[in-house]
């Protein structure tokens, strides 16, 4: 019998090349993006207020938030206002990722979990909107823990492109946030 982790993974044919990542556009108290990566059977999550960039010169604030179950990666809809995270959620981007530090001889194969503990994560995204290397770096710890999400300077970097503004629809349903809210 398949484990719940395997059942969740089987649903995500879009993440068949490795662990899953998803970026959900979330219109809650404030519009933001939830950047989530699969680590040890859960989605490690950061709130990115301005959304991800494809420009290596732009640093985006990333605030850690609660881990989510793997099956949440496919959620798109409206959470009632009285519930935690109330608001409309869209699957803005999704795909798989590779751990770049496991591929580097100089870093002796650090797991993503070890990188989180160390405060510096480097991964390669293979998404429908975002592709290439991204780094998450912790800048503050404690109750006000903060990270920065930065596009690495590789052949997928593009300072002219702004997918947060120009690619606003869901990769799951091709709907806008307003359409999702109306239809839920």
Automatic annotation (TrEMBL):
Record keywords: Ligase
Pfam family, one: LigD_N
Gene Ontology molecular functions: ligase activity
Domain DNA ligase D 3'-phosphoesterase as annotated: residue spans: 24-138
Segments of skewed composition (Basic and acidic residues): 169-184
InterPro entries: LigD_PE_domain
Key word Ligase present: yes
Keyword NADP appears in the UniProt entry: no
Top-level taxon in the UniProt lineage: Bacteria
Region (Disordered): 153-184
PANTHER family: DNA LIGASE D 3'-PHOSPHOESTERASE DOMAIN-CONTAINING PROTEIN, DNA LIGASE D, 3'-PHOSPHOESTERASE DOMAIN
The protein, known as: DNA ligase D, 3'-phosphoesterase domain-containing protein
Organism field: Pseudidiomarina planktonica
């Amino acid at each position: 019998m398949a484990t719940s982790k395997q059942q969740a993974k089987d649903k995500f044919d879009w993440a068949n090349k490795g662990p899953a990542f998803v970026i959900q556009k979330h219109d809650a108290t404030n519009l933001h993006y939830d950047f989530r990566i699969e680590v040890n059977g859960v989605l490690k999550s950061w709130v990115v207020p301005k959304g991800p960039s494809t420009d290596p010169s732009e640093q985006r604030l990333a605030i850690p938030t609660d881990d989510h179950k793997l099956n949440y990666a496919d959620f798109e809809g409206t959470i009632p206002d009285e519930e935690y995270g109330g608001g409309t959620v869209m699957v803005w981007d999704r795909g798989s990722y590779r751990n770049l530090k496991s591929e580097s001889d100089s870093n002796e194969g650090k797991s993503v979990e070890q990188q989180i503990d160390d405060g510096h994560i480097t991964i390669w995204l293979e998404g429908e909107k975002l592709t290439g290397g991204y780094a998450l770096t912790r800048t503050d710890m404690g109750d006000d823990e903060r990270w920065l999400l930065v596009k690495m300077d590789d052949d997928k970097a593009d300072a002219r492109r702004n997918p947060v503004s120009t690619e606003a629809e869901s990769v799951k349903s091709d709907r806008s946030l307003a359409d999702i809210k109306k239809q839920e």
